[in-house]
Structures are given as structure tokens and as C-alpha cells.
Design a protein that fits this description.
The two termini are 45 Å apart. The chain has a 5-stranded mixed β-sheet, with helices on both faces. The protein is an alpha+beta fold. The protein is built from 16 helices and 5 strands. α3 runs antiparallel to α5, α8 runs parallel beside α10 and α9 runs antiparallel to α10. The chain is elongated. It has 2 domains: 195 residues, no CATH class; 151 residues, Reverse transcriptase/Diguanylate cyclase domain (Alpha-Beta Plaits). Keywords: Membrane, Transmembrane, Transmembrane helix. InterPro entries: Diguanylate_Cyclase, GGDEF_dom, Nucleotide_cyclase, Rev_trsase/Diguanyl_cyclase. It catalyses: 2 GTP = 3',3'-c-di-GMP + 2 diphosphate. This is diguanylate cyclase.
Length: 395
Amino acid sequence: MTIFQSSTWVKLLGLLPGELNPNEAGWLALPQHHMPLMSNRRAQMIMNRVRLFASLFAVLTPLWMFVDLLALPNPLAWQLSLLRLGATGCFVFILYYRMEVTLFNAWRGMAMLFAIPTLFYVISYLLLARYHLSGVSAAVGTGYAFLPFVLLAGLAIFPLTLLESAAFAAPILIAHVIAGYFQFPVVDWPSFWGAFWLQGLIAGVAALAGVCQLAFMIALVQQAVRDPLTGAFSRRSGEEVLELQFILAGRSGSPFSVAFIDIDHFKAVNDQYGHQQGDVLLKQFAQTLTQGLRKGDVLVRWGGEEFLLLLPNIDCQQAMHALQRLRRNGFGLRPDRTPLTASIGVADMLEEGCNDWRRLVEIADQRMYVAKQQGRNRVIATAGNEPPVSQPVLA
């Protein structure tokens, strides 16, 4: 077990018990294992903050031109002014350029945002090094050296993993080294490396701030998307995940199946043993089912005793076999100690030719009712085995 999967890592970040479990703590270091819904929401937040940062730079960057023109000698002042106008145009482009909300596009937006001022810093540093400034001009020129510090501190507003923070901080730190390399004969090396050490310290603090943001974001998303009773996804968040996975499967041409699950005779449990016992049964059913799922499968509480299971990258027949295995292993026991069973309908996006996830769910729902009509405790996965669907059979 690594430090990122341990409770020690959670304690080091100052997180309260219950906010993240040890498995989720690893999400703070690497982004690969984030659930799609989490990645999508984080991508939206990052892209919004990229535009916020770009708008700030788009306003402040050209305003400093007047200071340069008043305080710096020509042609340096005009060279820096043209450089500022070019950077401003790039910031305006980021501000108004619209990309699809994906984590990759969020990373790309951040890369563009930080690349512009980083290049601006290197070029301005080389231009300023050609002149021996003094007095007010020297003070204005020194201000350019603070740009890397501002950029590194700006990383703190983004909810980033440790790996992402390191990836975005590294080019800024490297730019500082490159600027010193080109001015090797005249650089005051103690001051240079002191500034570099301070930049590294700021980068570390910004990374911790980003990780803590991410930790609380994960905790809040987990609380918001989960059904409090069963721990499965709520219907609202489940629909969001379903739409996202449906789109991804459509683009890649990979199979995507859904299973509509209804617990058999659940109403009788509520009537005979009370709603509290019914809640216990729902929780038991969801936990038992989840234990037999793959890592990428998603269980959604659709309503009452109905659940929707999202099964990416497997077709209808593969889904049927997996569900038959789960059914044979059992879903637990009813209050009278008899086996708990369920009626299940399965549909695959490719096999059904669906271009709308709602239609896919409807087909799976219809097959679930067929399973009930045929005697419950079974899986219906192919249209060829289905008799005409009449009125729904009540549990």
C-alpha cells in the first residue's frame, strides 16, 4: 500500500474522517481513476477558472504598457508593448474560445493559459538584459522578474492532483533556469537560486492548495451523487453518468449495455414487515450487487426498488451472462429467510441501434416487465425471446 492509499495521507492533508476513504485518497495523486462524473465536473471547474484567469490577464497585461512607455527607454518600451499586445490577444482568444467540456480540453486550456505568460517572461527577460537600467527604469524592469511567482501562485485556484500540479509548475521553473542560462556571465547566482528556491516553495504550497480543493470536491461530489440509503448513484447523477457513457460509447463504437433491475415482491416486504425492514433489504441488495460488479460498472437507484446498472464495453449477451452469474450467487435473503430475487431486463446500444439513452433504458425496462410476466427471478436480454408486452406486472 502506497502513502496515497493510506489513512496517513488523508491525515496529512487535514481531512476529516469520512470525507475520503483510503482508496479515494489515491485520487489526489493521480487522475486516472476518477469516475467519469467527477472528471466531467472537475473539467468544467478548471475551464471556468482558466477563463477567469485569462480575463484577468487580458485586462491587466495591456494596462502596464503605459508604465513601460513612461519609464523605459526606446526601443525597449515599444518592444515590450508589442509583446504585451500579442499576449493580450492570446488571452482574449482563450477567453472566447469554446471547447467541449472534457478533462483533456481542460488540461489544454490550462497549458495555453500558462504557456503565454511563461513565454512572455522568457522573451521579456532577454530583452531587458540588453539594457543597463537604473532608477525608476530599473524598478519597472525588476517587476518582470516576479511573473513566475504570480503564475505558480495562480495554480492554487485549480483543483489539481499532485501529478497535474507538478506538470504545470515544471515549465515555469524550467523557464526561470533557461532565462538564467542565456545570461550566464552577468547573473547574480546566489540571488538567482534563491529566487528559484522560493518559486519551488510557492509551487509546493500551490500544489497542496490544489490537492485540498480536489479532496473536498471529491467528498462533496460523492455526497451529492449518492443515494443516502443504498450508496448507489442517485437517479439525477445516474442520468448524467449514463448520458456521458452513452456519448463516449457512441464515439468509440464500443458496446454499452444497461440492465433494468426490479426486486421481486418488494411491496410485500413493506406491507408485512414495515418500511424500515424494506430499507434494510434495499441496502443489502445494493451492497451485494455492487460487490460482484466490475470497477467501471455503475449502479443507479432509479426509484423505489428499481435499479439501473450501466455496463460499458460489454454487449447484451456478455451482460446477460454476467447478470446470470450475479443472480446465481444470490442477492441476499428476505426477512423470512427465503432468497431475495430480482427481474432483470438488458439492452445494448449497438444491438438496438439506439441514438438516445432514454430509448435504451426504455427497452431494458420493457424487458424487465417481460421477466416478471414470465415468472420473475430471471434475465431477459434479447428481443427474440420476448412475447408482446402487456400491462406491467406489479411487484
